[in-house]
Amino acid sequence: MDFQYLFELLCGGVVKGSIYALIALGYTMVYGIIQLINFAHGEIYMIGAFVAFIVAGVLTLTGYSGLGILPLAALIAVIYAAAYGYTLEKIAYRPLRNAPRLSPLISAIGASIFLMNYVQLVQTPDFLPFPELVPDFEFLGDLTQFMSSVDVVILAVTTVTMIALTVLIKYTRIGKAMRATQQDMVMARLVGVNVDRVISATFIIGSVLAAIGGVLIASRTGQINSAIGFMAGIKAFTAAVLGGIGNIPGAVLGGLVLGVAETFGAGYISSAYEDVFAFGLLVLILILRPAGLLGKAVKQKV
Amino acid sequence: MAASSTRGGKKLLEVSGLTMDFGGLRAVDNVGLDIHAGEIVALIGPNGAGKTTFFNCVTGIYTPTTGDVRIHTADGATRRINGMKPNRITGLGMARTFQNIRLFPAMTVLENVMIGRHCRTGTTILDAILGTSRSAREERESIDTSYQLLKKVGLADVADEYSRNLSYGAQRRLEIARALATEPFLLLLDEPAAGMNPQETHELDELITRIRDEENVAILLIEHDMKLVMNISDHICVMEYGKEIAQGTPKEIKENPKVIEAYLGEEAHA
Amino acid sequence: MSHLKRSLGIGLWFMFLTLPLMVVRVNTVSREVEWRWSNLVWVGICAFAIAWFWQFSIERRAAQRAKVAAEPHPEKDRPSLAQRLADDPVLSRRVLLAAALIALIFPWAVSTTQNFYHVNVMVSALIFVVLGLGLNITVGLAGLLDLGYIAFFAVGAYTYALLAKGFGLGFWMCLPLGGVMGMLFGVVLGFPILRLRGDYLAIVTLGFGSITKIVLENWDTVFGGAAGIAGIPRPDFFGLPLDGREKSIYTYYIVLALVAVTIFVTNRLKNSRVGRAWMALREDEIACVAMGVDMARTKLSAYALGAFWAGLAGVIFAAHNNFINPDSFTFMDSAMVLAMVVLGGMGSILGVIIASLALKLLPEYLRAFAEYRMLVFGAVMVLMMIFRPQGLINNMRRKYEYDTADVESNDGGK
Ligand SMILES: Nc1ncnc2c1ncn2[C@@H]1O[C@H](COP(=O)(O)OP(=O)(O)O)[C@@H](O)[C@H]1O
Ligand SMILES: [Mg+2]
Hints:
Chain A is mainly α. Chain A has eleven helices and two strands, in the order H-H-H-H-E-H-H-H-H-E-H-H-H.
């Protein structure tokens, strides 16, 4: 057994998984509140990465340089992702709030296809090289054989983001309103929660997390295109289901498990089938334990 | 607790010690109930008492946590049906309606009833494609039976209408017709008069007794309308907080102090 | 007035939204930034106009809903044109006859021995009509959202390609085999997943679809990998030699016949015990099982039957194209077939046929449109769900004949 290789895979898996977790949070929060698989969530992530690419590109080509580019690009990406997420909900989902259950899902698939092709048409269908914005950290020393400095940034940012999210949901007014709406939308409305606002806020928060994930993963893989949202979206959804959809710690756990499982599958079995492992895991978990790792099975009221 | 009245007829359904938990909540707690041929039995109790959950356990929608549900079929056999799939239970001869109406909104009134014929017919995909004589015969039979049932509940003139276009009261009657189409020996009605006006309720009262007499089915119903319940039931079971608090004839129930306190008393206050 | 203000606001909002993506393009090779400000103006104008129209449509829809809610017992839904057509047996028979004649003459009328492009296009379109009608059984009738439908199409196509090239089996032998293989895959995959809730089912089928494509791409010893399989034989006509045009026309008639059979079968099933159970399951699962319908069996039959048709279509596709590779079986293709069903109207045979032809032929003949094809499909799916969930053509209501002998005495008539 080659422990060095194993540890390398584990680190890679955790880094990848923490990004899946970031995106999965958006799925899980939306699903928890309106029971919709927001199929277009992956596209929001892709748009986040694209906006960051454009901002960084404009800045570097007009002569700016330095450490400020990454935070600035990320900030604008986050703002735009939030705006797209908000608009998406308003147009594609809100009019279907009381429609038969498959209607919003079909609408979501349509929105996803639309956004993907929109970016492809107004930008390019080709892969674009994403600039290296993270400098090499001296202090990593020997650790670099397992983890690049980008990976360290990823882990740090995801950890901070998740702590912030926990605080937001636990202690703020909107967080409490979100939890109330998740428990019982009708009841929440009766006690004065503005449900429409809560849903909008959920989409905005989910989109912000997705954009952060988008910028981070683009920095890591070094390239983006208009189709990256599709696969990432499915993977993140898998992570959300794995952890128990609607369950926030579950999404994080699911993301990590998926990331590690996938990296190990690719590392020990075959990298060509990397995506098959994710899908296989999704199918298995849905068949064997649809409530997920941390979710509770609920019986539908009749 | 035992009913002092003598109850005639063959025993059809026998529920004993039925308990259903949802997580920490015990919605039904050790409830027993028998139903005999030709009876109309009412299950009453305040909202949240566990009546609908009792129905769901008996009809296979939920698998009870503990307890026994047994039926005695026409051929004299006894079967324990806990955990059986709902469609098999319906096939054995129990059919129900729902408190929150569950029709097939985009299908016509007649088609809704014809779904009830599904388990009494056997046309396969190949039969249907090839148009075999079996397919034609069963189709004819389904249409005729369903139409006769619609006549019985007074919906024949809207047979080709989409069921979503019916009034509330009509939808409830359609659910009854659909359940009857499965040829049950026991019909379970969950709040059939909810949302009906007094006139409709009165007609329902007659309809239920007529069904019992003409179709030869026993009836178990959940209902809040006390006038209707006292009028038509032979036997009443009262539930509160998941527990069975009394059973007996309407007269006994009316006089039972526990019931007056728990249930009728509540109405008197209101 | 408030409409104007809101539309203006929405116009500005969309100008903001599209600002980075539509205006700026960073060329990483030449290291230049391209600024396309004119796009922004167009976005502003279009968003303003659409917002205006949108608000109007939403309001009108709300008013309609309110009207329906106000009259709990409306006399009748207004019959659609297609409904009226179907209700008139003489007229509908004439229309059908005319359509059949046109379909039969079509390939000879539009082709010459040198140029039979239009016939080939029509064959491709009709293959998608079969796919649309097959998926219509699964999604439209039974309500099982299948996002990996194209995988069964691939199963049929590869079955023919492998059997014909590996074992020298003929087209007519392989046609039913392809269908059966599709169905077999449908049963094997469907069996464990069909008890899942609707939206989970959608995602799992999407997973299956993607796995199928990955396997086809990577298992190159059997499936030829990304390069695919070439030199697949055309359908044989009793061993007679056919020229290019005749081959295309022959294939055209084969797929036309398949379309006719599909219509016939779907129509028979729709108005049968099985079809009604599918629809009931789509409307309300719990009520359906409580009325004695076996959910697992009913769902599986709809899923497998849909897969059967995809398998058949796959065989013809492989035979018509001579060449297949995994790129013909992507998620976007599944989404396109789904768009056909959604656009046509779930469960509506005529609607799905029209939508399939439109979605396949428009991009072929309007090259300008082809580029925006998927963009339009996506938008169409969203807009249809919001404004016309029943599709272009309403699923027609079946009227049954029954003996009304003594109904008047019973409840006083209408
Ligand atoms: N599927 C379920 N999951 C959790 N709790 C349930 C479920 N169904 C019913 N309950 C609870 O069980 C109790 C009894 O409900 P129910 O049987 O509907 O009462 P009733 O029909 O007498 O009004 C209620 O407290 C209800 O909230
Ligand atoms: Mg109840």
